[in-house]
Amino acid sequence: MSGHSHSHGAVAGGHAGGRHRWRLAIAFGLVAAFFGVELVVGILSQSLALLSDAGHMAADVVTLGAALVATRIATRPDTTGRRTFGSYRAEIFASGFAVLVMLAVSVYIVIEAIGRIGSSTEVGSTAMFVVGGIGLAVNVVSLLLLRGGASESLNVKGAYLEVVADTVGSVGVIVAAALVLTTGSAVWDTVVALAIGAFVMVRALRLGREVVAVLGQHAPANAVPEDVLRALEAVDGVSEVHDLHVWTLTSGMDVATAHLVAGGAVEGVLDGATTVLREQFDIAHATLQVETSDKQCRGVDW
């Protein structure tokens, strides 16, 4: 005998990225408005720290825009009949795109900084101070907006980490301006630019690891397969559990499938197993096949 059960606890409140789309929209507007100012001042002041921060700000504009598009796509109903899981993975692809942009910006910063070593470039420290301060204010507001959704959506988290890195960049610009002003040496502008590039690269690699884990269908951190297996085996009426798979579809939506061997009533086993997955592991969608102990399971062999 077989059956299936669907648990939608985490989906009931709506798609995680979609719920926080307004945060992305406001942050996008703020960052996009400031990017042009920083770019122009960076060129006029010849500050590599400002230009590197402007480059990272451009990455913010691109990734926040991609995140906005992804949340729209992810919450859009499927009209083809072929996307049985909808388009929820769109936000994961947007996060992957954010990683690539962040890495590209960090590499550009490092290359430009190395190219300036030994050169005698005049840097406008006053302009750096003013623009760095404004950029810091813009980033702090954006951080406060995005922090509320970063723990629920990988897409929003990608945008949040982008702004975190850019906030550090703004602080770096202010520090570089102070050092240039007090020492009279433009080398500090280059040193800070290198530090910003290294920081952005580390953040990008960390986010990239999370994106790969989702696309690779790794088990989520809150649902270790061995723990899920033991919990299902402890359900009344279950004598064995096999073909267990747990993965993340998108942020806030973990999925599981399993075969349960039962000696008693199927409905009791389904209800008990569904409750365990929902309450102990926050599994958003579970598909369970219940088998009798005397039936040969013809499942996959991998």
From TrEMBL:
InterPro entries: Cation_efflux, Cation_efflux_CTD, Cation_efflux_CTD_sf, Cation_efflux_TM, Cation_efflux_TMD_sf, CDF/SLC30A. GO terms for molecular function: zinc ion transmembrane transporter activity. Pfam families: Cation_efflux, ZT_dimer. Gene3D superfamilies: Cation efflux protein transmembrane domain. It is found in: Membrane. Residues 25-215 form the Cation efflux protein transmembrane domain. The keyword Membrane applies. The chain crosses the membrane at residues 24-48, 54-71, 92-111, 123-146, 158-180, 186-205. The keyword Cell inner membrane does not apply. Its main location: membrane. It is a multi-pass membrane protein. Keywords: Ion transport, Membrane, Transmembrane, Transmembrane helix, Transport. Residues 226-292 form the Cation efflux protein cytoplasmic domain. One of its GO terms (cellular component) is plasma membrane. Belongs to the cation diffusion facilitator (CDF) transporter (TC 2.A.4) family. SLC30A subfamily. NCBIfam families: CDF. PANTHER family: CATION EFFLUX PROTEIN/ ZINC TRANSPORTER, RE54080P-RELATED. This is Cation transporter.
